[in-house]
Specification:
Elements (H helix, E strand, L loop, with lengths): L4 H11 L4 E2 L2 H6 L13 E3 L4 H14 L3 E4 L16 E4 L6 E5 L4 E4 L5 H9 L3 E2 L12 H7 L6 H4 L6 E7 L5 E5 L11 H5 L8 E8 L1 E2 L3 E9 L2 H13 L6 E6 H11 L9 E9 L1 H17 L4 E4 L3 H12 L1 H4 L6 E8 L5 H15 L2 E7 L4 E8 L4 H20 L18 H4 L2 H14 L14
Parallel strand pairs: 2-4, 3-4
Antiparallel strand pairs: 1-2, 5-6, 6-10, 7-11, 8-9, 8-10, 12-14, 12-15, 13-14, 13-17, 16-18, 17-18
């Protein structure tokens, strides 16, 4: 339904006139995310506290309009888009780090805190928050929780859900809930915290987060290994894990990824490299040096052309800048991108690499692979011009084939991007009808009137 003038006036009374807009320029800013798909909302509202969010949702239930929560819009699957119109709730005003408790290794924060700012704040206290999505400089903690973001360090430390102890949230009905605990252990009742984390903003709007922290590792070292072939790099990753070495990151870049970053940044990474691994280890100085020596021997055993450890922190930062620049750099290959984040068992990475190579050869499409090889999370990107209908059809068929092969290997079609709208058509390839029906029933219990973030996850 279109948002009437009377409803809009009621919204403005909740947050104040300066924190609510339906000017076309403002709506346009909140009409897209990293998918580049565009859905214009009817209004954008900027609540300042939990009470205002509750009032907005209660009004939505009474008047029958949709509400879509949003952080900074960096999502890759359309989870924060107003696909059916409605009101965007922008969470950017709830941006305080409330407390960092060194004694109990816990932090309290609001969902609008930028992830990189949170990293910096806890590290200033000699503490460590491991989840580190590539978008950390502009994504928010709330968005990370909604998608259960991962990142390079997941291989050793796990993903966002592993660090969320408790939440405060507003249900779609406007009711307020507190979930979880502030302690290391807690098993009273169903785990509603885990249910909300990763629910893509469909079950509630998170307003306060309790996060588990770790002591900051005393030393971190970064190394690179260059290979002639991507297959060799993939086999080396499998070999690292098989030999019980768990670095905190094992990232990979295929030749196409290396080339586009070199062009984008105007640098020379590694001449004639077919693939590169970017590996980081942390711990005590003795542990780190021991792992570096083990990795050097192992990587050379897998025919690495060059194995090198960054001499300085600045050298390491340059390597990570190259890794985190891949996504924007890919547009040197084409105006449009289909970006997927499949995950396979780590021992199956070589098989997936061969499959991607065979599809690349068969279709003639530009397919670029990079990602978190340490946990089997492969980002494959098809670069194309979507205005070319034949090329688009071929790309979509390739995505379906890769998803099917991923599932054959025992993997999943989404490791950290969620389902949203882009993976919604493929949901029933991974989940059965009983499981999907159960999830829909859970959605109905939380959101009986279907007003919160509609059109996401479930095929219609």
């Amino acid at each position: 339904m279109a948002l009437s003038d009377s409803i809009y006036k009621k919204l403005r009374r909740i947050t104040g006139e300066d924190n609510c807009s339906r000017d076309m320029e403002d709506l346009a800013c909140y009409a897209y995310d990293a998918t580049a798909k565009i859905f214009l909302p009817d209004a954008v509202i900027f609540p300042g506290n939990q009470s205002e969010i509750s009032s907005i949702l209660k009004l939505a239930n009474t008047e029958g309009f949709y509400v879509i929560p949003r952080g900074y819009g960096s999502g890759m699957t359309g989870g924060s888009l107003a696909v059916k119109g409605g009101v965007i709730i922008a969470m950017t005003r709830l941006n305080r780090i409330l407390k960092i408790d060194r004694e109990n290794l816990v932090a309290y924060a609001e969902p609008g805190v930028v992830t990189a700012d949170f990293h910096k704040a806890v590290e200033n206290e000699d503490l460590f928050y491991p989840p580190d999505p590539s978008s950390s400089k502009f994504s928010t903690l709330g968005g990370n929780l909604s998608e259960c973001a991962g990142g390079p360090r997941a291989v050793k430390y796990g993903v966002t859900k592993d660090y969320v102890l408790g939440l405060e949230a507003v249900l779609p009905t406007g009711d307020l809930i507190k979930t979880g605990v502030q302690t290391v252990k807690g098993v009273v009742g169903y785990d509603l915290t885990r249910l909300l984390v990763g629910s893509e903003g469909t079950l509630g709007i998170i307003t306060r987060i309790t996060l588990r922290l770790l002591p900051l590792p005393r030393q971190v070292r970064t190394m690179t290994a260059v290979f002639e072939k991507m297959e060799s790099a993939a086999e080396a990753v499998s070999g690292i894990i098989k030999n019980s070495i768990i670095p905190r990151t094992i990232e990979f870049m295929d030749q196409a990824a290396i080339k586009c970053v070199e062009k984008y940044l105007d640098i020379q990474l590694f001449r004639d490299a077919g693939a590169m691994l970017l590996i980081e280890v942390d711990g005590s100085p003795d542990e780190v040096e021991g792992q570096i020596r083990q990795l050097e021997d192992l990587l050379n055993g897998y025919h690495a052309k060059q194995v090198k450890t960054a001499a300085t922190k600045e050298d390491a930062e340059k390597l990570w800048k190259a890794r985190k620049t891949i996504s924007p750099a890919l547009f040197t290959y084409g105006p449009d991108k289909i970006n997927e984040d499949i995950v396979v068992p780590r021992s199956k990475i070589p098989e997936m690499v061969r499959k991607i190579k065979s599809l690349k050869n068969k279709t003639g499409l530009t397919i670029v692979s990079f990602g978190h090889a340490g946990d089997g999370n492969i980002h494959f990107n098809i670069m194309l011009d979507k205005k070319n209908s034949e090329e688009l059809k071929k790309a979509e068929a390739t995505v379906g084939e890769l998803f099917d092969f991923t599932l054959e290997l025992g993997g999943t079609i989404s490791g950290e991007h969620g389902v949203g709208i882009t993976k919604r058509p493929y949901l029933n390839r991974e989940l059965g009808p009983v499981e999907i029906d159960l999830m829909k029933k859970i959605k109905t219990v939380f959101d009986p009137n279907g007003i919160l973030n509609p059109g996401k996850i479930f095929p219609e």
